[in-house]
Amino acid sequence: MDISTVCIHGANQQKDPTGSVTVPIYQSATFAHPGVGMSTGYDYSRVQNPTRENLEKVVAELEGGVDAMAFSTGMAALTAMMELFRIGDHILALNDLYGGSVRLFHTISEKNGLTFTFTDMSNPSKLEQLMKPETKAIFVETPSNPMMKVTDLSAVAEIARKHNLLLIVDNTFLTPYYQNPIALGADIVIHSGTKYLSGHNDTLAGFLVVRTAELSERLRAIYKTTGACLSPFDSWLLIRGIKTLAVRMDRQQANAIALAKWLASQPKVNKVYYTGLPDHPDYAVTLKQARGFGAMISFEVDREETARQILERVKLILYAESLGGVETLITYPMLQTHADVPVEEREALGINERLLRLSVGLENVNDLIADFEQAIKGV
Description:
Strand order of the largest sheet: 1-7-6-5-4-2-3
CATH superfamily of the largest domain: Type I PLP-dependent aspartate aminotransferase-like (Major domain)
Number of helices: 14
Largest sheet: 7 strands, mixed
Helix content: 25-40%
Mean pLDDT: 95
CATH class of the largest domain: Alpha Beta
Shape: globular
CATH architecture of the largest domain: 3-Layer(aba) Sandwich
Distance between the termini: 51 Å
Structural class: alpha/beta
């Protein structure tokens, strides 16, 4: 079945006996037992809820995993996943990650006894030089946030298997519609469901999708114990959002390609970071492992004054955090998504006062270009 059809019908799973076309919202905290030692399969909504279960099965199907777990936020999903590790464990992580992930690793995971080595993964063979006896996992976000670096997942997966390490991939930017890390060798896939999977900037959610039943069992135990499950209503919103994932991603990508080309032609723009431009250094890797380029663009302008004027003058484009919704959003990574990353680390990656990040929405692309034109005018 084509992935766009799975988005709508959920691989024909859990049809409602009433004939309801939409999945019901089971707004119940608990479920009655038919008898002593008996269960309907649902006991308490922290453990499982029929609405959330339907959502999880759809996401697992889209990603090609054996199971998916829906969390209250993307950070809740990441926090629960880190409970797989013990004091003294070491993790190799990409050096260009969402700032919230970096903050969690530095302020919570390190406090709990884990250690990290952050590195460029453009040459996967160098990862072996950074491994320690206590290394347990490789953590990748691709494309990365905000510099749009692309990691060769198959190459990293081969190294992870060789050393018996977990490969964990944040697939938020491309979504399962454009990229499936498990098919490329990943063990765990993370999503901020708040973003493209929801698609409407109206709810928070997170997902963990796993390759094996063993990982499912371990993470389900953590999930039940820590309790950051997605509510029934928010699960329903995600089910509804995913139904339009394919058409949204295709339109947003088309807009992003046109906008990236326009930005690249502007004299006040020094550099455009978009994996769909043929001059992107990782363009060939993207073609090899993904079915699309997504709708995230970062770009560097000539001066800090230009960046600030764009942020203050845009009208249709919204100056706001987050990404992946139908509205086009622009962010200032150094002050927003990566504010907690040490200055030296930020600037070494190129996250400076001239860098802006754009989440391209569904508006007419000519209107987006016109908004940029009036915002840049007179700088």
